[in-house]
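User: Here's a chain of 202 residues. Predict its fold as tokens.
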Amino acid sequence: MKLVIIDYGMGNLKSINSAFKYLGVNQIVVSNKYEDIKSADKLLLPGVGSFSKAIDNLNKLELNKILDEIVIEKQKPILGICLGMQLLCQNSEEDGGAKGLSYVDAVCKKFTTNLKIPHVGFNQVKINKEAKLFDGFDDNVDFYFTHSYRLTSEANLKQSLTQYDEEFISAYEVGHILGTQFHPELSQTNGLKLLKNFIEKF
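Assistant: Prediction complete.
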């Protein structure tokens, strides 16, 4: 199986690469090149930092057009992690607002809580039992988060939910397009189990 981790200059690439190597993925390529992305069996979109800067980077590298072809037309499975999850959605309020890739009917909004922001650390995810990404998990499991903006939607995204004073979408599964607000690569056993599901079930 060939996994391509999309490199647009804003990802936690080392720990993601290490997690998939641990799971025995025999071909892991970190790239932003069309031919690599085209030949992938599965794609991973990481991300740490500013939404608008990330979208600018994707557009400058023409990765928006490449992903439109490979993810939407060719239907290759993709998993977005943290900022990567948000980029697959419609838009974000961050930095005055920016349009996302618009593959998923959700928007990214700033937390309105009085609790400390960013939301950092392990927190429980109330999993959606219909989501293949969570096959074999119990109802509430812990994953590691670090983020200041959260996802909301009125659509059915097979979403899993987390509470941090206010409820937000911590994972979604829209066919072959998947996202986690938390970092599975930093979430120990639960994270590895989720990444294994991504490898084996999509």
